[in-house]
Amino acid sequence: MRYGLVSSGGRGGKAWEDSSGSSISSDSDHAYGSREQRQRQRQRQSVRQNNNINTQSKPHETCATAASAATLAEPRRPKADQQPLPSGAIRLPTRDFPLPASPASFVLSTSSGGGGGGGSAVTVASAAANAKGDRYRESAERAHAKIAPVSSDKIDRARADACRSYALPIQVEFRRTQEALAALALDIPPPASSSAAAPAVVVDAAVAETLRRVQQLHSDFERRLREEAAAEQHKKDEAQRKKDEERRKEEDAVREAAEKVKRDAAEKKQKEEAAEKARRDKAQRSKDDAAEKAKSDAAEKSRLASGVSAEALAWADRYRAMYQQLMGGAGAQVKADRAVKAYCFKQRGLVTRSIGQLKDSVAFVTRVAATVGDVLAEASRLHGAVAHQWMLNLTAKALVKQAEREVAVAHHAAYPLAAAAVQLMRRFPDLGDLLLVRLVKKCPYVVPQYGARQPGQGAEEFLRTIGYKERDDGALESEGIYNERMAGMLALFAAVVQTPPEPGKPSVLPVAMAWTWLARMLNMPPRTISPLLVHVFLSVAGAALAAAYGRHFACAIDVLATEWIPAISSTDAVAVAAKSNLQGFVDAYRQTGVLNECPGRVIKRD
Fold it and tell me: Which end of the chain is more exposed for a tag (fewer CB within 10 A), N or C?
């Protein structure tokens, strides 16, 4: 059984009502006795037990009365300086809810059903009062303990104290809400004045509306707080962003300054290195120029010492370069190709034997030239230009080697050798340059050019540079043998250039080359080998020179006789013998006008 205070509509009649609806009279004239005191004691204990049970099972029912008590305040008294609100305006109350003049219009109920509009009030207010349940429950217990049904006045006072105890926490909370909402300048209309005789349904509806507005205001307030917090956070974020941006700019400026310093240092270092490199390069160029100048001066000094002209030296260097190119080109390629190498080495014996069998016979010369020519053509046809070039070089080498062996001891043998060479050159013009390459390499007097010993150069090394060969015992050949070999190769050169070309065809090596050689030799100071070389050259090619140049040739012979021969040394035995032979040859020509030419110039016909 649960008990509650029920208003009877007036101030005098009060009754206890249990949960079944039966009432217990409690009029003011009720007599108190020991039985009644025991009954009241039992009622108090019952109320305490019911309140404990109700607050544990349905805490919102007890809080409903507390929420209803918040609306039982007396009408709000406006301040003297406060202007009346216009119609429809809403203002928050700024004072606590006063208690009504008569608390008889409130319902203090702990039942779950409630009467009239109490159910809706309990439903709306339950959520707001749950947090305060424990505190309100203690206040309710104290209030119920003070209510004594001895008289209606005491009951009214106890009821008023209970209402105040229930309403005070709500007033404090609501006052805080008012202050917060007042700070936001939000107004709500004051609550309607509650009549002392207003039914409980109206009061609960007003409470529900007020609580709804309070919740709405709380929601708006929280939204405003969130918006302000978001704005404040945005402001802080913006300030932080600006701060970060400034810090980043400062860091970028510091980094850029450091990079600029580093870049300037690198540029400075690079400029210093470039300047140092330029200085070293300049010093190296100066050194190289000095070395080149020294080399050039040494070459010029050597040239002057050798007596060779600059034009003759350039002509010889051209053929020496051709030899280096030949060795690095066709020679290397043939060695790299086994098939071509085998063919060329097989044909080498045929070419060498054919040239070595040359005789003073037109038919024999023609047959040898044809045989060698067929080999050269076959090499070109079978293995291409590389094999052909290699075989041409082999033919020139064989001709020069035959001149070293045979012409050196019999100068007239140069004519059939030259005739075969000319026939091959008419068929293969490149053979002319290759023959000169081999002659310049083996015999520097074809240029003509004397050797010049360089500073610090040994005697044997110098002799090797001018063409001396080693004997089988490792020693160098004698001067006499050396002179004979040089004279034999020069005789081949003279025989080739004096050979007339075929009618209507230009000569590969014209007789003008013989005139150039003689002019260069006469412009050079004579040495030990010089009279021998001039004598051999004139005896082989002199007739052709006389026929081609006539009076100019005679003038050259006069210069030779009057200026050049007297300059030959008279202390060297080899030079003296060669000088005597040359002097007799020149004197005979000057006296008779006929050269004592070498026999065999005209090849025999079978």
Answer: C
